[in-house]
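sorry to bug you again but im stuck and you know this stuff better than me. what follows is a protein written twice so to speak, once as letters and once as structure tokens for the fold. mainly i need to know what kind of three dimensional shape the backbone takes. anything you notice is useful, everything is just below:
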Amino acid sequence: MNAPQFRPLKFGVTRVSLRDGVPGTHYLKADQDLQAFPDRLTDRLQHWAQVKPEHSFMARRIPQADGTLGDWKHISYAQAWHSARCIAQGLIDRGLNAERPVVILSENSLEHALLALGCLVAGVPYVPTSPPYSLVSVDYDKLKHVLRTVTPGLVFASDARYAKAIAATVGEDMEVVMVKGEVHGRTVTAFDSLCATAPTPAVDAAMAATGPDTIAKFLFTSGSTKLPKAVINTNRLWCANQQQMAQSMPVLAEQELVLVDWLPWNHTFGGNHNFGMTVFHGGTLYIDDGKPTPALMHETLRNLRDIAPTVYFNVPTGFEAIAHAMQTDDQLRKTLLSRVQMFFYAGAALAQPIWDSLYASQEREVGERIVMGTGLGMTESGPFGIFVTNPFVQAGDLGVPTPGLELKLVDTDGKTEVRYRGPNITPGYWRNPEETAGAFDEEGFFKTGDAVKWIDETDVHLGLKFDGRIAEDFKLATGTFVSVGPLRAKIIAAGAPYIQDAVLTGINLKEVGAMIFPTPAVRALSGLPADVPLSEVLASAPVLAKFQDIVNTLAQSATGSANRIARLCLLSEPPTIDKGEITDKGSINQRSVLTHRADTVAALHADTLHYIVKPQI
């Protein structure tokens, strides 16, 4: 059988060096050295504004009066540079600094981008904050925590949708800037007036005073059982990481970069990885107002029918919807696959049926497959850290370290934790010395909590694969360890396309259980009308029969109590960001779900839930 043909893609790191430390410790790094990188991201913005001033930096569809989105509005590099300098002058005039930064409450937008660039020019950190903290939360606890932690001098919001949250959380001493709308009972500064500030030589002086150690932004972790932490992102971290990405993924510089991207800028994947990539390479980012949800995925598909990206990033739920749509959508296949050189996913496992469907559409349309890249990173690493090095990627593969990043592999409790040290690693958490001290080991390596193992123990150059989160693993009452990450991925793969995610239960109990978050596909499986509550759908005979088959299949491949799903239930209530059960990019926080659904866990293992599916073999 012939090997599948992939669209040619060069990988930057193909060789690594492994050395031994004290017993149970090893060190891994790329043979390729990290090349020089700029002191600040604004150096790249200024460069592109001079070299190709009229080239489109960013675009977004214009909102219409009826709530729909119209044609694309573009901002050139010259316009972005000019606006950033004007905004920087306004921030300088206000005396803002790291102790009084800029908090951004809004979703991705052209104004959000310009304000971020203005902050970078002025040397004033900005804090992109999860919009659901303002728009979904009822108590605003996480938003209040963000404001308490960073003590902003200015708060930005796009429109009046944020007025209620601002009124409830933002003190009178903090200036509020909005693109449009107002907050009842207080003065609001128009964003246009901030952009109209005339720059003075103070702007050049402020930018010249910034350097590698200047704080560019604070990014908050998603938070689980604890409140989110403010990760310090310096210019060094951001610029080093962009250079690392450029060397690991040479495709980024092979042609003019075009991104179509929805990933939120308050998260490191969208805000550092992709936003930074655009500025670093002088590319164009089309802001996608869609999202991998039933209500918004149509907008993402519309944009991908219109704009052909050169590389494309998404999370598994997004790729699942795209894979399904490409089976019948000729225009989507034609546009999306016309010049894309690489797909890349992160955030969760990508089930094999999704891979197969994507590959089938690609081979049908262009006669070859598109490489699906992935790796491992985190907010504290910029985020890019480990990247796959060949096109034959399997679910769970991570690859090898990017240039300049040294990995420390530490054996602990039958697992191997990976730790990071390099110029792309955060110096710590803002105003949280205890958490900062606990995050690094005695050699200065950041303790990720991620477990890894070799893809092939006989060939270290293939790199590592994911072996779960150490903090998620647990023991049964028998003392047997349950490795959550691999088992969770196995459940999702076995249940595709009906399982969105799975949370494993059974801590200190005799058996492993699973709580399943289903996908919308279960509605079609049930055969019930579209308006029937999800709880009735999950209780229907066809759905229960399907999950009986799934749990039976899983039981057939189980080798013992630690990887046998002995009981399973379906959850009709989706995970909530308010409780930290889900992050902005859609990944599940296992610990938070277990904490907030402790009653369901107890009922599952006590056999008191109405519907529990158990293996029948």
Notes: The CA atoms of residues 539 and 611 lie 7 Å apart.
